[in-house]
Amino acid sequence: MSTTIQNIQATYAFVERNANLVKRYWAWELVWMVYSIANSLSVSFIGLGMEALSGEQANVDGRFLVLYLVIGTLVWRYLTTVFYWITEVISIERWEGTIEYTLMAPVRRVVHMAGQTVFAVVYSLFFTGVILVVTVFVFDLDMSQANLWGGLVMLIAGSFSFIGISIMVSVLPLLFPERGAQMTHIVIAVLLLVSGVYYPIEVLPKALQVFGVVSPATYVLDGVRLTLLEGTPTNQLWPQIWPVLVMGTVLIPLGLWVFNLAERYAKRTGKLARNG
Fold first, then answer.
1. Is the pLDDT of residue 221 over 90?
2. Cα gap 276→272, rounded to integer Å
């Protein structure tokens, strides 16, 4: 029991540390929030733009396109925020000058990552919620028929698979101190391409559609669109939920195993220098 309590306390310590980082660099968080809102609105305005450009005879429903794009941008913003908070775990330690102390401390890596992921999920939900409120206000969207609870369940379920991917990718800044953080963008760019964030994956070439089928973001986007566009009940989301849960069950242990291998290699080769 005492070990369990200690692990919970250690997990909370990492959550609290990240919360303090956000407080310390609040100006940067504000800049990032404004950028994210502007970016999401810009993409969503494409829906109204398509309606205006197509003319009256094309019969394009601009409001539907706006909501379709809004959901894509919000879901993607949530998933990428989770992704970057976890993949930057090493970059943050180097930035703060604590990487040697943290990775040498008698704390299980699963506890370390648990604290990082709990904060990532909570922060991402808050971040996405703010963007949603602003977007609904700007476009005057009618969300009365939307199943918001089902959308939240779908986001949480999809988080597990993204957490596993993020833990695995976080080894890049560990193994490549100079440019490892930039290398993580490759993974998120490929997922953006094949997951149907702004378009159905059916419009992709057949070869890319295969990657879309194995991307967890595809199922999260499908599930959230069902709940918000069609008001699909939560108990009918199982075809979208079970694939991401299975992916998470496989990817989280795999990610921890890969990170453990990379950590031992980094310690053996002296890559834990605080300045990279």
1. yes
2. 7
A 10 A CB-CB count for 122 gives 13
pLDDT digits (tens, 9 = 90+) for 135-186: 888 888 877 788 989 999 999 999 999 999 999 998 888 888 777 778 889 9
Return left, alpha or beta for 234; rule: phi > 0 is left, psi -120 to 50 is alpha, else beta.
Answer: alpha
The span from the CA of 228 to the CA of 48, in Å, is 19
Q: What global pTM score does this model have? A: 0.88
Report the distance separating Cα 48 and Cα 60, nearest Å.
9
Domain boundaries, the chain: 2-269
Cα(102)–Cα(18) distance, rounded to whole angstroms?
14
Per-residue HEC secondary structure of the chain comes to: CHHHHHHHHHHHHHHHHHHHHHHHCHHHHHHHHHHHHHHHHHHHHHHHHHHHHHCHHHCCCHHHHHHHHHHHHHHHHHHHHHHHHHHCHHHHHHHHCCHHHHHHCCCCHHHHHHHHHHHHHHHHHHHHHHHHHHHHHHHCCCCCCCCHHHHHHHHHHHHHHHHHHHHHHCHHHHHCCCCHHHHHHHHHHHHHHHCCCCCCHHHCCHHHHHHHHCCHHHHHHHHHHHHHHCCCCHHHCHHHHHHHHHHHHHHHHHHHHHHHHHHHHHHHHCCCCCCC
13, 19, 23, 24 alpha-carbon torsion, rounded to 10°: 50
CA–CA separation, 101 vs 275, rounded Å?
13
- Residue 8: CB atoms within 10 A of its CB come to 13
Residues with Cβ within 8 Å of residue 135, at least 6 apart in sequence: 37, 40, 41, 44, 70, 74, 141
